[in-house]
Every structure is written in C-alpha cells, then in structure tokens.
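Can you give me the bound-state structure? Components:
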Amino acid sequence: MVTPYQDRKISDPKFNYGDEPFFEAATKGKLLVKFCNDCGQYHHYPRALCPFCFSDKTEWKEATGAGTIYSYSVTRVSGPVPYVIAYVTLQEGPTMLTNIVECDLDTIRCGQKVQVTFKHSENGTGIPMFKPA
Amino acid sequence: MSIRGKAYIGGIYEHPARKIENKSLAQLHAECAKGALEDAGLTIHDVDGYFCSTDAPGGLGGINMIDYMGLTVRHSDSTNTGGSSYLYLVAHAAEAIAAGKCSVALITCAGFGRPGTIVRELDSNIPDTPFEMPYGPVTVNLYALSAMRHMHEFGTTSEQLAWVKVSASHHAQHNPNAYLKKVVTVEDVLKSPMISDPLHRLDCCVVTDGGGAVIVVSPEVAKRLKRPMVKLIGAGESPKGQMGGKVDITYTGAVRSGPIAFAEAGVTPQDIKYASIYDSFTITVIMTLEDLGFCKKGEGGKFVMDGNLISGVGKLPFNTDGGGLCNNHPVNRGGITKIIEAVRQLRGEAHPLVQVKNCDIALAHGTGGSLSTRHGSATLIMERE
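Here's the bound-state model for the whole set.
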C-alpha cells in the first residue's frame, strides 16, 4: 500500500506569552528547544520554569533538528487527507509531538531517523515537522 | 485517614437511551439523579452533597444543576479528568463523607457524544496547546500512538487488541440497551476500516448520548437502605503526562493509582473477581491490565486472548455490560458506567448470563484524557458486605 504525503491546512498555533521565540524561529527555519542552566537538561514543550528542577534559569537553544521516531500513527479518516501524527525524540533528548511529512506514509516506522523541516500554518507561522533523514 | 469502609455505594442508574434528541442537558442529568435515588430508595431531599464534572451545564462547579434540581447541599465539588472524573468523584465523595461533610452524595454524568476523529477546540492559556494543535491531535490518533509503541516494544498484535472488542461484544449481546449487540470475531475487527494505524474502527468505543448517576452514602445511611451493601475499600488517583519531554507512552497512570487503591483495600489483583476497565479503545484495556498488575508489563496482549476477559470463560471477567466498546460511552465519558457495572456485579444484579459467581470484590478503573499526552487515572476497589 502506498499513501503519498499531501499538504494539509494547518491551524494557527494560539501561543501564550513566552512562546513567541519558538514560533518566530520556526518561521525562519530554526528549531528551538528550552535548556535549563541549573540542571543542564533540555525539555519540551517549552516552559519558563524547568519541569525537572523548577529553576527559572531556562534559555532557548537551537536544536540540530535530528531525531528518531518514537511512535507514529497514520490518521486516515479525520481530515480531507491522511496525515501522520508522531512523537520524535530529538538528538538533544526531549520527545516532541509532531507530524511526519514528505514521504510515503506507509513506509514510516518506529526507530526511523528523521530531520526537521518546516510547514506553515494558515497565517504563515512556521511549524516544525520531520521527514526521513 | 483512609476511606476504607467509610462509604458505600447506595444507588446506581444508567440511562437506557443511547441517542437522545428531545431532552435538555439539565433534564438528562436530573433523570439520571432520579434513577439512582429510586434505586437507592432515597429522595432528592436526602441529598446533602453534589459532585459533577464539566459535562454538567454551567461550568461553575455544579451550582447550576444544584439549583435546577432544587437541592440544598452542604458540600459540593467538581473535578474534570475527562472520562475518569466519576471515579475520582466517588473517592472524593467518600472522603467528604468520612470527614462528616455530607452523608448522601449524588454524582451525575450526562450528555451528548461527539466523534473522536474531530479536533476539539480548547481554551487558550493551556500551555501545551500551541505545541500540539497544529499537528492534528484527535482522540483516536493520540491513543493510536500508544498502541503503535506498545506493539513495537512488546510485540503486541492487532489480533490481541481485537480480542478485547470480541470479549466486550460477547457481554453486550445480553444487554438489551447496548448500542452494539452483535457478537464480533477477531476477523471482523481486523476487517473493519483502519481509522488511525493501528486502530481499526472496531478498536474504538461507541459514541453515544446518555449518562448515569451514582449515590455514595455513609455507613449509617447504607444500613437503612434495603439494598445490598457495597462498600468502598480502596481508591487511588494519578494523572500522567509527557514528563517534560521524557515521554514514555507504554504505561498509564494506573501504575500509581492501582497500587494506592490495592494498598488501601488490603487486597491484591488476585482477589479481584470482576474488573470494569476503561475501554475507550482496545489498547486502553491492555495497558491498564498490565499497569494494575493483572499480568506482567508487555504481556497484556497475551492476557486478553482466547476469551480470558469473557465472563464464565476466562480468568478475569471485564465490562460485562459490553463496556464503552459496545454498550455505552455517554458524552465521550465512560467512567460512570464502569462504576455502575461493578456495583451490579457485587450486588448480583448483572445479567444472569454474565453474572460472576461469588463476586465479592470488584475493581473499577477510569482513564480520562489522552493516553499518549495527558490523562487522569483513577482506581476504585469495592467489596460486597
């Protein structure tokens, strides 16, 4: 079976105060991850306070964009086109919810190496997604 | 302080309808309340505590329903953990009764179902939303992610998932109110359309209108009622999330709520004669059974095969009303019906063809929210006295 990737309409992220740098960077083609200067760990989704040690000394770092598929699902009936929701574990450590794009959706597997790419929501905001590396 | 032995389930009611077009939401809640009060042999004037979740109209912690039903209560509470809310609420009602804050606690759940394949609009201010909504999360694909990973790590198969549905359907054939009464085979499940890999349509629960209610009472009130005595002996609750990105979606919050409930009850999984296990999807049951200790981690798929969950056939009869997979999943919340069927079993009031013999200890477990992002788990253990 072959299920070709098709672009779909992406809803605009309704971000909260503090989330702007993530989406401004994504619009310029960069993936940011939050890093804690106290405990030395990356986390995702990004917070002002580190979810591991509750320090407020968190800062944005640019990720390599390399990752591995932790899990995925081809959603076949929800929208006008099939799409793949997935968890991708970044080289930096955190696992993020995302979509897998630009490939035959039926070839995707857990453990597959992927690289970040960017799609855009209806108002042009960059949304990080991943394609096979 | 423990809730062990401090509260009893005095009344239960499951609304018989599955498709409702001619009733208001408030009326539906009130009808469920009336049914449970009649079952208990109590009147609305006996109620001194009201507990609800966000399916109750108004969103102000139940005050609209308290006003609608003409209640005068001295204690009220509202908790929202999705479909597991009502298991949390039974525990919270028992805590309130144990603390002397009320003696007849009414819990209602009612509403209208919506398909699990549409994106649900969420409030702004939720911190995770901007990092998830653009990716098209819907109920079914968020559970599918857990199923896919479980298959990858433990070798769980689609056939094993299907056995959960097959078992539920064997029970539903005896329930005249069940939304789906037809017995299905493993092949039927595998041949049903793929909704979100690896979950087929028949791996998903039904979408129904309706509801139910439960009355939790003090020991003094329970003794006055002319109903079998069903005692709450243990309760545990635990939310689980993405842990800052250290995501592990192969287990549920039941790994914490289960041991807390078993410890309070002073029993083990081997003592449980009947289990109501939240069955939003077939994978929910397999993972929950593992996490509650009915089998080893990763062996849930093998555990559910060959009718092991079918009453009269297997070792652990589950969801003998047909569960959310076949009977009823009112307002996308299967928690209240999990409590209700466990109480029927303990009273000996389940359908004779699915009634578990000598059912003295039963468990009910709820999983609300999304298995792979954030969910609230709650476990109740009850004993017939």
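A couple of observations. The CA atoms of residues 29 and 118 of chain A lie 6 Å apart. Chain A has one helix and eight strands.
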